[in-house]
Histidine kinase N-terminal 7TM region domain-containing protein
Amino acid sequence: MSYITLLSLIIGYFFIFSSGLVVTVYIFRNRKNYGTKFIGLLTAATAFSLGVIHATFYILSVVFFISEQINILFWKFSILAWFISLIITSLLFSFFREYKKIKSFPFLFYTLLLGLLIGTLLTPHSITLNLSTSLPSSIIFIDPSLINYYFNIVTGTITIVFQILIISHYLYIAIIINIRSKKKEETLPILLNAIIFSITITLNILYILFQQTLFRELFIIVLWIAHIGVSIMFVNKPDIFFVLPNRIYSINIYHKSGIQLYSYNFENQSDSNTESTIWGNILIGLNHILSEFLDKKDKINVIQTQDADIV
């Protein structure tokens, strides 16, 4: 038995499990610091699903041998936890690009693939277990290299296609952010994170294709290292979701009558050529129209446009 691999995985699991719980509780208790409560909950869900759920089912399926059916069940649960974690992480990556906005199509497609995966996992022989030793008579620790899982064509294809799409999505968003950002040092962690996660996913794809346990162990090692790095980033920079995509170019404050009270330009805004004085007239017009229908003193305080907020 390879005690080094076995002990390394067990020690790594307890570290990841403990840190995952701590980070999840910390993020949940401080979720207001992450821009919106929804982003805070997604961030906590990412830490919990990867650091607790996926890690637990992974260890139970490759370090312990209980029975063929139970081990396969644990492995299927680890796959589902991995899928769900990738979908949640994709949601978070979408916030890096555009705060509070999610494009529905990719996530509806991911949800469809998740449904297909659940359906195929429920079929017999979707995943089979190969044990390179005689079947033990009781629950034992086992050398991870002796236990292997094989995917049938349908299950393997769905899993690989899903992960390839996720890689493309991660890299696309990270590259777009890096190209559009004027301060590359702010977006570099996002790009590096996307590259590391892409390497992790690639290792998992290689395991499914070639069924070599080496790729599986490399996958979990790189994943746990990446998870620690991302957790540190989430704890130290909770404002990353609304700092990166929402650079302030100027501040214009108007009286409800439309008179401009204050204006300050931080830098030249390249995305909009609209003169700030126009918005005063817009406020007057909208308040006048609404005054015909509403019996209130204050009509409009803020207008949100595609490129700016007018106060």
Observations:
- Residues 83 and 114 are 7 Å apart (CA to CA).
- Residues 270-274 have pLDDT under 50 and may be disordered.
- The longest helix spans residues 68-97.
- The chain has nine helices and eight strands.
